[in-house]
């Protein structure tokens, strides 16, 4: 636990140092160098759960993705997405199973929202099982690098976030 907190603290301090221009020095014998260089390290996930008085309240707290809003775009696998954008961001939305899907890209960084959305459709189409719900949200935010799945389960709203969409959904199935 202490090692994990130390790593997290080091990452946060390094991020602050990079953002503020503070000079930092690295050692060649970092205690976690193996994990950094390892190709087998998995994305970290975050799980959250909120309880409501009723299932309807839980369901209503999850963002609703409109059925058809924006310019239609063929994303493959019989999925039509709807594209909108503004202020450097592009959005594509669609529905799969009982989930609304929201994809955000940054056009200033040159992220191709249609190509990335097609990749998301391929990933989602290859997944056979999702957490059971009558209302959920899948968010693939390429601009921030965060991928999440949120769903209503009884009187709870559960959410798993990761830097990898497939990992988020796989972890959600264990909750």
Short structural summary:
This protein is an alpha+beta fold and 175 residues long. The chain has helices at residues 2-20, 33-37, 55-60, 113-126, 165-172, and strands at residues 45-51, 71-74, 80-86, 89-96, 99-106, 136-141, 146-153, 156-162.
Structure description:
- The protein is α+β, with helices and mostly antiparallel strands and 175 residues long.
- It folds into two domains: 1-41, no CATH class; 43-172, no CATH class.
- The protein is 30% helix and 31% strand.
- The chain has helices spanning 2-20, 33-37, 55-60, 113-126, 165-172; strands at residues 45-51, 71-74, 80-86, 89-96, 99-106, 136-141, 146-153, 156-162.
- Strand 4 and strand 5 (99-106) form a beta hairpin.
- The longest helix has 19 residues, at 2-20.
- The radius of gyration is 19 Å and the shape is globular.
- The two termini are 22 Å apart.
- The model is unreliable at 1-30 (pLDDT under 50).
Strand content: 25-35%
**Could you give a short account of the major beta sheet?**
8 strands, mixed
Integer-rounded radius of gyration: 19 Å
Secondary structure category: alpha+beta
Principal-axes geometry comes out as globular
Tally of individual domains: 2
Poorly predicted regions are 1-30
Count of alpha/pi helices: 5
Portion in helices: 25-40%
State the distance separating the first and last CA atoms. Answer: 22 Å
Task: Note the run of SSEs as H and E.
Answer: HHEHEEEEHEEEH
Roughly what is the average pLDDT, rounded to an integer? 82
Strand arrangement, largest sheet? 1-8-7-6-5-4-3-2
How many β strands by DSSP?
Answer: 8
């Amino acid at each position: 636990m202490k090692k994990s907190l130390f790593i997290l603290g080091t990452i946060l301090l390094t991020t602050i140092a990079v953002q503020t221009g503070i000079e930092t020095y690295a050692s060649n014998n970092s205690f976690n160098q193996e994990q950094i260089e390892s190709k087998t390290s998995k994305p970290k996930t975050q799980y959250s759960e909120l309880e409501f008085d009723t299932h309807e309240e839980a369901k209503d707290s999850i963002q609703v993705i409109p059925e058809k809003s924006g310019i239609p775009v063929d994303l493959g696998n019989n999925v039509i997405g709807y594209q909108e954008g503004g202020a450097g961001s592009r959005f594509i939305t669609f529905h799969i199973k009982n989930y609304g899907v929201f994809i955000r890209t940054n056009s200033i960084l040159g992220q191709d929202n249609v190509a990335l959305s097609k990749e998301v459709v391929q990933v989602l189409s290859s997944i056979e099982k999702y957490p059971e719900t009558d209302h959920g949200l899948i968010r693939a935010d390429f601009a921030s690098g965060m991928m999440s799945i949120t769903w209503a389960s009884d009187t709870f709203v559960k959410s798993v976030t990761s830097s990898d969409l497939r990992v988020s959904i796989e972890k959600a199935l264990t909750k």
